Amino acid sequence: MSILHNEQTGIFSLETAHTLYQMKADATGVLLHLYYGKKTGSDMDYLIRYTDRGFSGNPYELSSNRGYSLDTLPQEYSGNGVGDFRLPAVQVLSENGSRSVDLRFVGYAIAKGRRQLSDLPFVREAEETETLTVIMRDSVIGLDLELKYHVFPSQDVIVRSARLINTGNQPLVIEKAASACVDFLYGDFDVIHFHGRHCMERIPERLSLPRGVASFGSRRGMSSHHSNPFVILCDRHATENTGDCYGCMLMYSGNHLEEMEVDQTGSTRLVSGIHPDGFSWTLVPGEAFQTPEALLSYSANGLNGLSRHYHDIIRHQVISPRWQTAKRPVLINSWEAAYFDFDAEKILRFARSAKEMGMEMLVLDDGWFGKRDDDNAGLGDWVVNEKKLGCSMQELSDQIHALGLEFGLWFEPEMVNEDSDLYRAHPDWALADPDRKPMLARNQLVLDMSRQDVVDYLFDAMCAVLDHAKIEYVKWDFNRSIANCYSHALSADRQGEVAHRFMLGTYQLLERLLTRYPDLMIEGCSGGGGRFDAGILYYCPQIWCSDDSDAVERLEIQRGTSYGYPASTMGAHVSASPNHQTGRMTPLSTRSIVAQSGTFGYELNPEKLTDAEKEEIKKQISDYHRFEPLIAEGSYHRLTELDENKDFEAWMFVSPDQKEALVNLVMTHVRANGPFPHIRLQGLNPQYHYRLEGENIAHSGLALVNGGFAFPQMHRDYPAAQLHLVAIDEA
Ligand code: GLA
To answer: From atom 2 of ligand 1, which residue's Cα is the shortest distance away?
Structure first.
């Protein structure tokens, strides 16, 4: 049993392989958070001390006990306006104008497994999953709250969410409903968050938490390039391999907010959920609202340890079972090869050349539909432009399959251009404020995915294409932030629901397509990695990591992404040199080593390759096939500390049985007469001897981990080295 309730003490204990999470409802029904961290084997309520603190008042019924204050006690899910002056987890507007919420414990249930969510992505049940539901009530306003805890013991993950139910007889307007709230009574934390921009996503920044509130989030209608819905709190001395680290990852692709507050005594509160700005949701009596899920994890083994928990749960409980172990195709994508300038002849020439080099799928990117010869027109008209192609999609697909390649197509379903037949027929299907010109971005508008008729149209339009040609893969793009988030189908008082209803519409469309085409692989994309989150990963096993395909920039992007997400989810391609985004020249071998640490592919014009380059690419692809199981299933280790090493970046994968490892190193700064790049390897079995591929030598795991490995000096711009280690015997 991973969930226990002690009837005498009232303590709930949630245990995973290495962690303990405790809470208890006290005599007044306040649900106190007691502990989250390394296992203790004890009740942890002794950590709470009570004292009378000025300006931290007392609940009315406890006014004689001046040491009892909601403002100083650790809360499991903080209410609003009734005496806890720290961040609320929930805020609800009642008919009389009050926004107060005071939730008290009324009961609980413990069950094996978990219930699926019907309209949101969720963490899929594992064999050992157990669920705790704690029921809280505010009987004054008629609100019930179900706090859900799904425990995944072997992955050291606890998945939380909240469900709010209107049990009264007045409408309630939810203005904030967090997915998770965690109070840390003691400890000094740094926060690591993942900021960025288009072409530079998920850059880790580590900051000491200040007193007061620090927050990160997105109001762009998407999880965004700018702030990933994932934060790490770690102790001030934590490194990649040591120290306490807590992660909180929101499984959501829309507006989100991660808030941290360090209070008057140094306690820290973390709250994560849908961004409350602009959000409101009316619950009429009897209705319920379900928040997205938040994945909490703790590791005593530093940031690498924490990352491995997230990699594990995403690979096995978030990604669809269809793709968990399936090989991903090595693809060639037409975007950087041709942009909008192609016809079927050119695409077939790419395909022939790609096939000769060993690639397995051709993806036809933007430009095959409607009046789409640049990015100003055509979105919404998902009708094949046969005039431009010179044939039907079926003919093109048949010819590509005849060459022995699979075929994929680009879509951007949630968008529309004003210059499109769809917009001309249904201008009210685009999000826009009444009487105001909407913001344009890339000359496009956003479709109102909160409307069922829009979702139905898109489903039919996409099926019409997918039914008439053999298509194994869809790249699902989303190329702007949402502004003017106003739906013409909802009343004025419901406009605060649009952003979340938009996400529900998108999830519904993804779900319906995957139900109809269970073998279709959908790769997520949003101007690169603008929606790289666990919500999208539930539907899409891989996401194009960034529109920046420069191998050197990708080192930062893929490293930042790796804190929360496994390599098997990161779309990564070898592109041309000089690179189209930066103009930087890098060796083909370096580009391949970097792209191999993701879902591998190419994004260049194969007709411009020399014969020698084609031969090199053949070898890269055959290497990738050898290494793919290791990259997809192995444990991942960042070998350099964040911000410490400026001359190279290094990382490695180790197979689950520790018999094989792949070490990658890229020089970002080559120095004259420089030092030998030296790193200590990780995750190897100290008992084994490992042979270095291509060299007739072996070293013990103990030596490689403790003494490390020194690479030869390297020259020229951005050289890279790869070490493949295979265990030969036990030492
Ligand atoms: C986005 C994607 C690119 C490409 C273009 C097409 O920017 O990230 O990979 O598909 O759209 O317009």
So the answer is: 527
Q: Give the residues surrounding ligand 1 with Cβ less than 6 Å away.
A: 335, 365-366, 375, 410, 477, 479, 525, 527-528, 544, 547
- What share of the chain has pLDDT > 90, as a percent? 98
- At 133-163, the pLDDT tens digits run 999 999 999 999 999 999 999 999 999 999 9
Q: From the CA of 410, give the closest atom in ligand 1.
A: 10
At residue 123, the pLDDT reads 98
Residues whose CB is less than 8 angstroms from the CB of residue 408 and which lie 6 or more positions away in sequence, other chains included: 331, 361, 362, 363, 364, 471, 472, 473, 474, 475, 521, 523
| 406 is annotated as an active-site residue | no
User: Could you tell me where the DSSP H helices lie in 1-135?
Assistant: none
Atom of ligand 1 nearest to the CA of 547: 8
What does the buried/exposed string (b/e) look like for 531-544 if buried means 16 or more CB atoms within 10 Å of the residue's CB? bbbbbbbbbbbbbb
- At 195 the three-state DSSP class reads strand
Q: Please tell me the distance from the alpha carbon of residue 147 to that of residue 717, in angstroms, as a whole number.
A: 54
Is residue 520 a contact partner of residue 471, using CB atoms and an 8 Å limit?
yes
The sheet that has 635-638: what strands, in order across it?
635-638, 648-654, 660-667, 720-730, 688-692, 698-700
pTM score above 0.90: yes
For 111, residues 6+ apart whose C-beta sits below 8 A from its C-beta are 130, 131, 133
- The Cα–Cα gap between 267 and 74 comes to 8
How many Cα atoms within 13 Å fall on the side-chain side of residue 52? 5
Judge whether 628 counts as a catalytic residue. no
Are 660 and 630 contacting, i.e. CB atoms less than 8 angstroms apart?
A: yes
Task: Give the DSSP H/E element, type plus range, for residue 499.
Answer: helix 498-516
Sign of CA dihedral 368, 369, 373, 379: negative
Task: Give 3-state DSSP helix, strand, coil % of the chain, rounded to 5.
Answer: 25, 30, 45
447-479 per-position pLDDT tens digit: 999 999 999 999 999 999 999 999 999 999 999
Instruction: Pick left, alpha or beta for residue 289 (phi over 0 → left; psi -120 to 50 → alpha; otherwise beta).
Output: beta
Q: Which is it for the CA torsion 251, 253, 254, 257, positive or negative?
A: positive
Residues 386 and 389: their CA atoms lie apart, in Å, by 5
H helical segments located in 175-290: none
What tokens does 140 get? 């004054």
Alpha-carbon gap, residue 474 to 12, rounded angstroms:
45
- Inter-CA distances, 74 with 104, 144, 300, Å: 14, 21, 22
β-sheet bridge partners, residue 544: 571
